[in-house]
Amino acid sequence: MRVVFALVFTILVAFASEISIATYNVQNLFDCKDDGSEYLDFKVGVSKWDCEAADSKLQRTRQVINALNTDIIALQEIENEQVLKALVSDSEYKFISFTKEKNSPVGLGLISKLQPSGSEIFKVPNVKTRNILKVVFETEGKKFSIFVNHFPTYKNGINMQKKAEKTLRTALGKEKNAIILGDFNSPFGQKSILNDIIATRNFYDLYKELEPKDRYSHAVHGKKRAIDHVLLSPSFMENGDLSYVSGSFEVFKPSFAVDEKGFAKSDLYS
Questions:
Q1: Residue 35 has pLDDT above 80, yes or no
Q2: How far is residue 233's CA from residue 202's CA, in Å, rounded to a whole number?
Q3: Does any domain span residue 143?
Q4: pLDDT tens-digit profile of 130-177?
Q5: Which residues pair with 95 in a beta bridge?
Q6: Is 209 a domain residue?
Q7: CB of 6 within 8 A of CB of 23?
Q8: Are strands 72-78 and 17-29 parallel, antiparallel or unpaired?
Q9: CATH number of the domain within which 75 lies
Q10: Residue 205: inside a domain, yes or no?
């Protein structure tokens, strides 16, 4: 059994209002319709997955979203836009962005209580993987961009991860106020796929705010790993018009989703 935790933090705008942001891999949020691109474990009729299981998964995911209650949430492993809309129906999250490659089992998206001013999709060339989603916000005359990511798994080869990382660097361009977040399937530390961005562009990994024992977002088979990340461009660390609220970063571990050791209470289909 496994559980992926949300990462939560807050930024301050023009020394006045605060915006809370989270990233969360929902771990395969599928519907119960056969589109032909589902993972085998989520094909109705050939697995344990059915409409009852799909509704249960949707409700449990919604429970986490409601508990987070941040202004903006980036999400990974959503089957389609219809599922994303169902997740936020009757909620304060009135604005959604979503992207998914054709024939891919899952995509990624962003839900927000704040209206974005724009968005852009970046495809990773020659790799069957998720796109990178850029969503732009402007509040009180201050603009910032969020880059939502879900990199290939390490078992598929480091070259695939490097292509995704190269696409991300291209997407960043000369963006001044950039927030990079998502599931990178890469650890914190010397072996991180993000180290080049951190070193050459002076981005700051918010895991540095935590004690080593607290640096994890993924718990499976008795192991805890930091594969989800939040990186902030240097502008957020300079106490300017847009700034990171010191001490706001946390790994969100709701008691209803984990046991006393920090592992999942649910199975693959929950």
A1: yes
A2: 7
A3: yes
A4: 999 999 999 999 999 999 999 998 887 889 999 999 999 999 999 999
A5: 112
A6: yes
A7: yes
A8: parallel
A9: 3.60.10.10
A10: yes
Distance between CA atoms of 148 and 74, rounded to whole angstroms? 6
- pLDDT, tens only, 72-129: 999 999 999 999 999 999 999 999 999 999 889 999 999 999 999 999 999 998 777 7
Q: Which residues have a Cβ under 8 Å from the Cβ of 89 and sit 6 or more positions away?
A: none
Residue 193 CA to residue 156 CA, distance in Å, equals: 14
Q: Which domain holds residue 7?
A: 2-252
Of the candidates 179, 110, 113, which has an alpha carbon nearest to the alpha carbon of residue 144?
A: 179
Q: Per the domain annotation, does 38 fall within a domain?
A: yes
* pTM of the complete model: 0.94
Domain count, the chain: 1
Question: In the structure, what pLDDT confidence band is assigned to residue 266 with cuts at 50, 70 and 90?
Answer: low
CA distance 95 to 93: 6
Q: What is the mean pLDDT of the chain?
A: 91
